[in-house]
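Student: Hello, beginner here. Can you help me understand the protein record under this note? Any guidance would be welcome.
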Amino acid sequence: MRSLLLKGMLIAVALSVPGLARADADSDLTQLVDSYWATRLKESPVLASSLGIDTYAGELADYSLAGRDRRAATAASFLEQLQSIPADQLSPDARLEFGILQRKLRETIEANRMGQRAINFTNRSGWHLAIAAVAGQVPLRNKADFESYNRRLQQYARVNDESIAVANVAIEGGYTLPCDAIEGYEESINGLIVEDVENSRFYAPYTRKRPDTISESDFDALSEQAAATIDSVIHPALRKHAHWYLETYKPACRVEPGVAAQQGGDQYYAFRIWQQTTTSLSADEIHATGLSEVARIRAEMIEVAKAAGYESREAFVEHLRTDPRYYAKTPEQLMQKVARETKLIDGKMPGLFGKLPRLPYGIKEIPEEQAERTTTAYYRRGAPDIGIAGFYFVNTSKLDQRPFWEIPALSLHEAVPGHHHQIALQQELSVSDFRKHGAQFNAFSEGWALYAERLGIDMEIYDTPAKDMGRLSYEMWRACRLVVDTGIHAKGWSKARAVAFMTDNTALSHANIEAEVNRYMSWPGQALAYKLGELKIRELRAYAAAELGGNFSLAAFHDVVLDRGPLPLDLLDARVRQWVARQKS
């Protein structure tokens, strides 16, 4: 009894002393976050390897619905523990951590309650492509690393079977992708089957220079083992996948382009809006914002066309789409243009940022089996702990659809100051590993990357009317997404109407518009993140500049936006406003 009374007195004293209570609450949160992150790494063994953690080397994730149920149950347990921590007793940075973890746990729980949880690929992604990319994400420095990689290859059939089983549940429930969006998808599967296994993407680690840490005989033995696995395990699984897709999945595809046609589709789309935008906006509100932005940007495009000497926006766009001088003759010529633009931008970075990341980035061509059906470019994060740079991947297919005047905005978005700059800085933060590597919010990261395109104005990158129209076309593209995504999934739009709207309002090529609309149809809500996130960052920049006047530093503003990693937009808003208040005082 006496010990209980003493414990009660100590608790009372702690609660009466804010510093003690805050330290206890912060410590409890730190322990919970670390425990959660350890669980995440166990469930994501490739991620663990990319961070230099060998505990799960040689393993691939559980792709089954049982695995998803387990992860959702674990998230519910962590959420219950999190809610027992008094948020009002946390330090300011700990409150950020609390809010981020709480949202991530709720996302996992809510996503698993819907039938759409069985949708396990999009028209531009799938388990086959994810495993084919593993070689570029894990360490390959010594014999143990190569042995682990080979063990992962040997698990491919298991991953394939689990994933097909999940997709079969989607078929049974009517949760399939739209037919138009997945036309030709089998080519991404068949493209990984090669006559000579030494040309396989899965064999890529053995085509590189042998590390000095592994003997020639061991390297040869492991390469032969990998080749045998590709031939006897991976190729048969890919053939099974392609046959299943053509004979079972494709005949069950959805005719309607929007998720509203599915059971619970409206609820699912509302969840996707909440998840992807980190806002409580409705589809109607987002649609209206999109129409407003389209009208504003269209007016700016008219002015640029006039400055270029054209009577109308449409005439200038037609010129940009059809003049052969704006298009590469070979993939190498396009890559050279990209390389020159990225180095020009690199030289402008110190003027707009106080802190630059240590990790460099490179450029690569998008793999051939993906290029025909995917977007213009994408970024793949690096892994500084194991010596892997970030990479800006460029689509070199359909060269007559990849104009040079898009390259500045595209490069600003994918490389610096866009995705690479933001993510590489995030990987260096003095925050929890969960925050550095596991807390992503599309509204923040994609919003930042779109905002980065606009920074080309500050950098004086858009030095010709063609480049400026390229910038505006890309901004218009993201504004159109607000209209088209909500139109398809909440307002009953057809694909033809979406394509017509994009064609009328952007300078994008037909191939890009087709690929983009297919993407929105198969990946509801994701495309909303870009413009809404960018608008919030621009709003906060204008607020800070107005409040601080002559004391406003654009570099300092950028650093404060990025120096705590990705945040939901409400937490970003609060953080910037607190920074402004501190600057004023």
